[in-house]
Write a structure and sequence with these properties.
Elements (H helix, E strand, L loop, with lengths): L3 H6 L17 H8 L26 H7 L7 E6 L6 E2 L11 E2 H11 L1 E8 L6 E11 H5 L4 E3 L3 E6 L10 E5 H5 L9 E6 L2 E2 L9 E3 L12 E7 L22 E6 L9 E8 L7 E8 L17 E2 L1 E2 L22 E8 L5 E10 L21 E7 L1
Parallel strand pairs: 1-12
Antiparallel strand pairs: 1-3, 2-6, 4-5, 5-9, 7-8, 7-12, 9-10, 9-11, 13-14, 14-18, 15-16, 15-19, 17-18, 19-20
The structure holds ligand MTE and molybdenum atom.
Ligand MTE binds next to loops.
Length: about 375
C-alpha cells in the first residue's frame, strides 16, 4: 500500500533525508526491513481504545448528527467549573449561542493550524495504537475566546458519552501546559485531521483533544465540553486503576519479527522503538541461552554484552510541516530498528532488546514503574534448529 506520508507531504517540497543516512543494512537484513509496515499507520490498522455502551463511534449516523458527533452539528462549550469557578468574561455555551462550531474551528485553522507527528499509545495496554500526523488548532486559541481572567489552574475536558455520567471519559491538564509549550513540544490541540484526512469517528472525530507528549488517555475523543477550573489537581478518569496521570511518554524498544533461526546462520530481527520525552540514542539487543541465571543485583541486565541495532531512517520523502525533522529519531514518534544476530549453535535462547535514551539512560530507567508507562525490557524466545 502507499505510504500516507508521501501523499501528505510530497506537495510540500520534499527534501532528501540523506543527512540521516545510517550504515546500509546487509542484504539478509534488507529483506526483513522490506516487510515492515508503512511508518504511518493505515486507518484500518489503528488500535481503538473507546469506552461506552454503545461505543459512541458505532452509533447510527442519524444519532451522531443529533448528538453533535458530526462536522455539521458539532459544538464545543467552554465553561467555568461550578464547584471551583474560574473567572471567565464570556463562557462559550450552546444556550447563549456562543459555543464553537466546526466552521468556526476551520476559520481559526486558516491562521492557527498546526501539524505534528505523534505515536498514540495507551498507558494501560502499553503498546502503540498507531503513528500519525495530527492536525489541529491550539486549544489555547479557543480558550482565549472565553476570556479567562483569573482563578484558573486546571483545564478539564470530556466528550460525548451517551449522556450517561457513568460513561464519561474525562481528562485534564494544568493551565500552564495549555497556554505554553514546554521545550520544543507542539501545542495541545483540538484535532480534526489525521494523516491529511478528516478525523474518523473511531479516531474521535469530528474533534478530539491531542496532547503531543502524553499517553492516549489525555487525548479525549468526541470532545464537546471544556471546563476551566480553579481546582489544583487532576481529576482524570485514568487516575483509577492506580495510573500515574502526569506521566509523559517513555522511551522503550520492542520486537516486531523474530524468525526461527538456523544453526550457524545469521538471523535478521526487526522491531520498533517508541521515542518518549527523553529521546532515543540507541537500540540494543542481546541473546543469551534460555534459562541462564543472571545476578540478582543486576535486574536490568546492565552488565550484559548488549550490541547496537541499526535505527532505520524516517520514511523517504518525508518532511514535517516545519521541514525536515530537526532530529532523528524524533521525540514523541517511533523509529524502526533492525539487527542481524550472529549465527548460533542449535538450542533455545532469549532475545532481549532495550533503548538507550538521549541522556544515556538504559531502559527501563529512568522511570521503571509500569503505572507510569511500559518500560520493561522485552524478552522473546529464539529457537535455533
Ligand atoms: N471520549 C473518549 N476519549 C478517549 C477514550 C474514551 O474511552 N473515550 N479512550 C482514551 C484512551 S484510554 C486512549 S489510549 C486513546 C486511544 O485513542 P485511539 O482510540 O484513537 O487509538 O483515546 C482516549 N480518548
Ligand atoms: Mo488508554
Amino acid at each position: 500500500m502507499t505510504d500516507p506520508s508521501r501523499r501528505l507531504f510530497l506537495g510540500l517540497g520534499a527534501t532528501s533525508l540523506a543527512e540521516f543516512a545510517r550504515p546500509v543494512p546487509p542484504p539478509e537484513l534488507a529483506v526483513s526491513i522490506d516487510k515492515l509496515d508503512p511508518y504511518f499507520t493505515a486507518p484500518a490498522d489503528f488500535g481503538d481504545v473507546s469506552r461506552g455502551s454503545p461505543l459512541p463511534h458505532k452509533l447510527p449516523d442519524a444519532k451522531k448528527r443529533e448528538v453533535g458527533m458530526h462536522r455539521d452539528t458539532w459544538q464545543l462549550e467552554v465553561v467555568s467549573d461550578p464547584d471551583n469557578p474560574a473567572t471567565l468574561g464570556k463562557p462559550l455555551t450552546k444556550k447563549a449561542g456562543t459555543a464553537i462550531d466546526f466552521a468556526a474551528l476551520m476559520e481559526l485553522a486558516k491562521t492557527k493550524a498546526v501539524r505534528f507527528p505523534k505515536i498514540m499509545t495507551c498507558l494501560n495496554l502499553g503498546c502503540p495504537l498507531g503513528m500519525g500526523v495530527w492536525e489541529g488548532v491550539p486549544l489555547r486559541d479557543v480558550l482565549w475566546l472565553a476570556q479567562p481572567k483569573a482563578n484558573w489552574r486546571r483545564v478539564f475536558y470530556h466528550g460525548y458519552h451517551n449522556d450517561d455520567p457513568k460513561q464519561m471519559f474525562r481528562s485534564s491538564l494544568p493551565t500552564g501546559r495549555v497556554l505554553e509549550d514546554p521545550h520544543d513540544c507542539p501545542p495541545v490541540v483540538l484535532c480534526y485531521k489525521l494523516n491529511g484526512e478528516f478525523l474518523s469517528s473511531e479516531r474521535g472525530g469530528p474533534v478530539r483533544v491531542v496532547v503531543p507528549e502524553a499517553y492516549g488517555f489525555k487525548s479525549v475523543k468526541w470532545v464537546n465540553t471544556i471546563t476551566l477550573s480553579n481546582l489544583a489537581h487532576a481529576n482524570d478518569t485514568y487516575a483509577a486503576q492506580n495510573n500515574d496521570v502526569d506521566s509523559p511518554l517513555k522511551t522503550f524498544a520492542a520486537t516486531i519479527r523474530v524468525p526461527d533461526a538456523k544453526p550457524g546462520e545469521p538471523t535478521p530481527v526487526t522491531g520498533y522503538a517508541q521515542v518518549g520525552v527523553s529521546g532515543l540514542s540507541k537500540v540494543q539487543v542481546w541473546v543469551s541461552a534460555a534459562g541462564k541465571a543472571w545476578p540478582a543485583d543486576d535486574p536490568y541486565f546492565t552488565k550484559a554484552p548488549w550490541t547496537d541495532a541499526l535505527i532505520l531512517d524516517p520514511p523517504k520523502d518525508w518532511v514535517t510541516p516545519a521541514g525536515k525533522p530537526a532530529e532523528w529519531p524524533m521525540k514523541l514518534t517511533k523509529a524502526y530498528w533492525a539487527a542481524l544476530l550472529p549465527g548460533l549453535p542449535a538450542g533455545e535462547y532469549v532475545l532481549r532488546c532495550r533503548t538507550i535514551d538521549s541522556k544515556k539512560q538504559a531502559q527501563p530507567m529512568p522511570r521503571p514503574f509500569k503505572k507510569s508507562g511500559r518500560c520493561d525490557i522485552e524478552e522473546v524466545k529464539l529457537t535455533v534448529r
